[in-house]
Design brief:
- Keywords: ATP-binding, Membrane, Nucleotide-binding, Transmembrane, Transmembrane helix, Transport.
- The protein has 1068 residues and is an alpha+beta fold.
- It has five domains: 304 residues, no CATH class; 37 residues, no CATH class; 304 residues, P-loop containing nucleotide triphosphate hydrolases (Rossmann fold); 251 residues, no CATH class; 49 residues, no CATH class.
- It is built from 38 helices and 21 strands.
- Strand 15, helix 19 and strand 16 form a beta-alpha-beta unit.
- Helix 6 packs across helix 8, helix 7 packs antiparallel against helix 8 and helix 34 packs antiparallel against helix 37.
Length: 1068
């Protein structure tokens, strides 16, 4: 203590802090505050960061190239849907739809920047703590460095799209169109970055992004034109930057342009000689007697758009971009990400109550609920401070015969393994010999790259590449059979577990699926409790595994990894791959003592280890040491304080080992495996010529002869055990499926953030969509609004899928890395369980979405005239539920053969965009080029929209609004009814009641549609085909499931038998 006090006095005397500050200021660049922790100014930071970003882009331009090429492809696909629109009134809707889709494509191309931000955030936070640069400088630098790619992407898409669609052929018009779309990209890029900066998690960012995206799409001005917007919601248009850009582009295309009329009313047989003043064009903005429609009038009456707003809207868009940029920069500087809570252990509520009672008993005082954090005694045992109180009680419970001594001895001889690299065979293991016996720990050591883990994988049969060209693996002198993978335990270096599972649940899951099926559940549970006691884990057996910092600590996780293998009752041996790697000395010692404990109870252990301390080294019985090239340097007993191994090397020319030296480090220096050291001789040759090597070969030959006289399995006399041991999996497929499905459902249930984000997304988007089209009337525009209400209900597709994929990938990684090699359960049970477990949640989401959307829109009102409210409501509910089930199956399909969830999300996004594009809403089959008709017919959304539309709108009357009536001047001497009767008989529609007789005003008001079936027929949605369409859509769900299973098998399930390939190679 005196030395510490003296140190503090010296620091105050020498004024160390001030000296350090002066040295820091001296190294700072000009124009920077002395109080700033940074060495260079803000603008210099931006300069260096931009340079770094461009170097990264130059080093890996694939993403930028892919983005530009993707934009060109999407431009070709999208523009081909609206290919070569003619300058007629028939193109009004499609021209507007093309511009609408183009603006949305440009604006929302930056949506995935939210994900990119969260990928980069840990690095930025780390560099900020190192005072390398400000987060705001990195934010500005990323925007600047991405500008060239965004400009290239924008011109790639818009150049193709503009001229293929046949938009206005004028240089000024084209450049204004491109200018507005560039600003659409920039505005929304800053907007999505702002959302990413204001939130602390990706899940928290994606849900509000989707809601705001939905609002921007609906209130752009095309889905619901301004004249049709509800008064209370119109204000959303004024704060929507995309609406200003869309208005300017529409004005740019339509203003002061004449469009030839495509259809007149009346026309056809009987009206060939009608004077032009007695007929009118059907388009909005038409004038009776005029053969064309002025685009200015169309914009005025259909959208309330004006040319005077064209350049004003550009200024507003720039203002939005500046505001979002400023907010984004400010947030990146001052809003920190999710903070770590420190190391704590989490329990289920039932586990908390149990610990509460235990703490009361331990402290002798009444303690309040652990959840509240209010305690009345400072001696409370907090979960993170749990001690292994019951370690001494373990030996009293060894009557359960968990790891009895077994006579099986696993040994291998002349094991040689090679892989092909660049058309050249490279030997990784070179004639390796050895054995493992029960009750002993064999250490496997070597330099980095010597093949330690490769040997472990080779012995356990887990190699995925390369081939074993020589050698054999034997158990009691017999070749390995199909029971071998289930006779061993393999503890991997990575501690992979489901974070939502408890310790006891993880053990039971492994025991239920890996112990023989004839063993009762009670026996398996008792054995799990035995292992929990054996591993001294009773105090946190009900704890949640969690994640780093909020869950089990490193040592507890390693014990859990070992325990998961032990509860499977490995009959032969236990492999451990560097169990002490990354652990501190105390934790490493604890794990080694645990291995010693297992060996003392009869377990055979083979363990790779990297540069252990002398204390840890003393816990091992034998050593297999490899040098680079997989060549054996030593195999034999270690002896007391490793003296047997030391004597061998000293006897073969090594310098004497100093008494204070660590034998492991000394040995690495002797063979030249330590940094900077060089071997005096090739110790592989030394070993092959040594007496110890000959003893090993003789012992292997003796074991092969004598042990082969024994039966391969001690239980072979029991027919049931022998038959069961030959099974690939311990449990039947149906049991695997049920247990894995239940585990997956529990994981989702114990992740409330995942469930709440889904619920919030579905409820908010459905309500917003429903009330945006609230009580849509039965006018022509009202029918179109209801169609778009159905169309917009599909918008949550991408976000729901992106929320689901990380959970699937997490379980898939656990299965493929640990559970599949251990033969815990089959790949079919895994993929089937993953698909099935999502269905209950999707049914609930679909039901909630139905009630939040169906009734506000008012689709049920259309069924009242025919008294079909219940039947049509039930069918609409079934369709909504089917859509949400389709989302989950599509997610599993996209990720069944792709490694990364981002790649699967991008693929799903592409498929979703194509489905929306070709479903018949934006462009019907009559508008589509003949080449794309197959996309319309193969599109699941085609049948879904047709089914919902026909169910929701059929068999009711249409009542035109005042501005939807077409005003016609009948010939002199004819009433409206006389003049229009023939046309109405052929084309439908009706006359305004007051116009049935002679028109006092001299004009007739005609509504082009009298019943909703006419509208449904125009979009190929027939009421008689509603159940057929429902069945077809569900067939797509079944196809998704079948393809997900097939592609998973094709892309991710290992094919063939490695042993047969080894045999074939040896014969060659």
């Amino acid at each position: 203590m005196g030395q510490i006090d003296g140190y503090f006095v010296d620091c105050e005397t020498l004024n160390t802090k001030e000296v350090f500050h002066q040295a820091h200021v001296a190294k700072q660049s000009n124009h920077i505050r002395p109080s700033s922790p940074y060495r260079v100014s803000f603008f210099m930071q931006i300069k260096y960061l931009v340079g770094r970003n461009f170097k990264r882009l130059k080093g890996d331009p694939s993403l930028a190239i892919f983005r530009v090429c993707g934009q060109i492809i999407m431009g070709l696909i999208l523009s081909s849907v609206f290919y070569n629109l003619q300058s007629t009134t028939e193109s009004f809707y499609y021209r507007g739809a093309a511009l609408f889709y183009a603006v949305l494509f440009n604006a929302f191309s930056s949506l995935l920047e939210v994900m990119t931000m969260y990928e980069a955030r840990p690095v930025v936070e780390k560099h900020r703590k190192f005072a390398l640069y400000c987060p705001s400088a990195d934010a500005l630098a990323s925007i600047i460095s991405e500008l060239p790619v965004k400009l290239a992407s924008s011109i790639s898409f818009n150049l193709v799209f503009y001229f293929m669609v046949n938009l206005r052929r004028d240089p000024g018009r084209f450049f204004f169109y491109w200018l507005m779309n560039i600003w659409a990209t920039l505005v929304m890029s800053h907007f999505f970055r702002t959302i990413g900066a204001v939130t602390t998690s990706l899940a928290g960012a994606m849900t509000p992004s989707t809601i705001l995206l939905l609002a921007m799409v609906i209130y752009t001005g095309f889905v619901i034109p301004k004249p049709s917007m509800l008064g209370w919601a119109k204000w959303i248009t004024y704060i929507n930057p995309v609406s200003y850009i869309f208005e300017s582009i529409m004005v740019n295309e339509f203003y002061d342009r004449q469009f030839e009329c495509s259809q007149y009313i009346p026309s056809g047989p009987g009206y060939e000689n009608v004077d032009s003043k007695n007929k009118v064009c059907t388009a909005v903005g038409s004038v009776p007697g005029e053969p064309f429609v002025n685009g200015t009038n169309y914009l005025k009456y259909a959208y309330e758009y004006y040319n005077s707003h064209k350049w004003r809207n550009l200024g507003i868009a720039i203002a939005f971009a500046v505001v979002f940029l400023g907010v984004y920069i400010w947030l990146t500087e001052y809003n920190k990400g999710a903070m770590q809570k420190g190391e704590i252990v989490l329990f289920l509520k039932s586990g908390l109550k149990k610990h509460k009672r235990k703490n009361q008993k331990a402290t002798g005082t009444a303690l309040e609920d652990i959840e509240t954090g209010k305690f009345s005694n400072d001696k409370l045992i907090y979960p993170s401070d749990i001690e292994e109180e019951e370690g001494g009680a373990t030996d009293k419970r060894l009557n359960l015969s968990g790891t009895d001594n077994r006579p099986e001895i696993f040994f291998w001889k002349d094991l040689t393994y090679q892989i092909r690299i660049k058309k050249e065979d490279r030997i990784i293991l070179d004639h390796v010999d050895g054995w493992v016996v029960p009750g002993q720990i064999t250490a496997l050591m070597g330099a980095t790259g010597a093949g330690k883990t490769t040997l472990l994988n080779c012995l356990s049969g887990r190699l995925t590449v390369g081939v074993v060209t020589e050698g054999a693996r034997l158990v009691n002198g017999h070749s390995l059979d199909s029971s071998f993978p289930r006779s061993i335990g393999y503890v991997q270096q990575q501690d992979l577990h489901l974070p939502t599972s408890t310790v006891r649940e993880a053990f039971r899951f492994s025991a239920y699926l890996r112990q023989p099926n004839y063993v009762s559940k009670q026996e398996k549970d008792e054995y799990v409790e035995y292992i929990i006691d054996l591993l001294d884990m009773k105090t946190y057996a009900d704890a949640i595994v969690g994640v780093a910092g909020e869950g089990l600590n490193v040592e507890q996780r390693k014990r859990l990894t070992i325990g998961v293998e032990l509860v499977a009752k490995p009959k032969l041996l236990l492999f451990l791959d560097e169990p002490t790697s990354g652990l501190d000395s105390q934790t490493a010692w604890s794990i080694c003592k645990l291995m010693r404990k297992l060996a003392d109870h009869g377990q055979a252990i083979l363990c790779t280890i990297h540069q252990p301390s002398a204390l840890i080294m003393a816990e091992f019985d034998r050593l297999l040491f490899l040098q680079k090239g997989g060549q054996t340097v030593y195999f034999g007993e270690l002896g007391q304080n490793c003296q047997t191994m030391i004597n061998y090397f000293e006897r073969n020319g090594a310098d004497p080992c100093p008494k204070e030296a660590n034998p492991a480090e000394w040995m690495l220096e002797v063979v030249g495996a330590a940094p900077g050291s060089h071997a005096k001789q090739d110790y592989f040759d030394v070993w092959r010529n040594s007496n110890e090597y000959q003893v090993v070969k003789d012992e292997i030959s003796r074991m092969e002869i004598e042990l082969s006289k024994l039966s391969p399995l001690p239980s072979s006399s029991n027919g049931r055990d022998e038959k069961e041991s030959r099974l690939t999996y311990a449990c039947p497929l149906w049991k695997q499926y049920l247990l894995v499905t239940w585990r997956t459902i529990v994981e989702d249930w114990r992740t409330p953030g995942y469930i709440y984000s889904k619920l919030f997304l579905v409820v908010s988007s459905s309500l917003f969509n429903g009330f945006s089209f609230f009580k849509a009337d039965k006018t022509i525009q009202g029918l179109q609004n209801q169609m778009f209400a159905i169309f917009m209900s599909f918008i949550p597709f991408n976000t729901l899928l992106q929320q689901m994929l990380p959970f699937y990938v997490k379980q898939r990684d656990l299965f493929e890395v640990r559970e599949s090699p251990a033969r815990t359960f089959s790949w079919f049970a895994f993929i089937a369980a993953q698909i099935t477990s999502e269905i209950p949640f999707q049914i609930v989401l679909g039901t909630i979405a139905y009630f939040c959307w169906y009734y506000p829109v008012g689709l049920y009102v259309n069924a009242e005239p025919t008294n079909q409210v219940v039947s049509r409501g039930v069918l609409t509910w079934l369709l909504q539920v089917s859509f949400y089930v389709y989302v989950s199956t599509m997610g599993h399909l996209c990720n069944s053969f792709l490694e990364l969830p981002d790649a699967a999300a991008n693929l799903a996004n592409l498929l979703f965009s194509l489905c929306l594009m070709f479903c018949g809403v934006l462009a019907g089959p009559s508008q589509l080029p003949r080449f794309w008709i197959f996309m319309y017919r193969c599109n699941p959304f085609t049948y879904l929209i047709q089914a919902i539309l026909s169910t929701g709108l059929a068999n009711t009357r249409v009542v035109c609004s005042e501005h939807e009536y077409v005003v016609i001047e009948p010939p002199a001497g004819q009433t409206c009814q006389e003049y229009m009767s023939v046309f109405i008989t052929m084309h439908g529609g009706y006359l305004l009641q007051s116009n049935n007789g002679a028109a006092e005003s001299g004009t007739c008001s005609y509504c082009t549609m009298d019943e909703t079936n006419t509208f449904l027929k125009s979009v190929n949605a027939l009421f008689s085909q509603r159940w057929r369409n429902y069945g077809i859509f569900n067939a797509f769900i079944v196809i998704n499931v079948a393809l997900a299973i097939f592609f998973y098998w094709l892309a991710r399930v290992p094919k063939g038998n490695r042993e047969s390939r080894i045999k074939h190679r040896k014969e060659e």
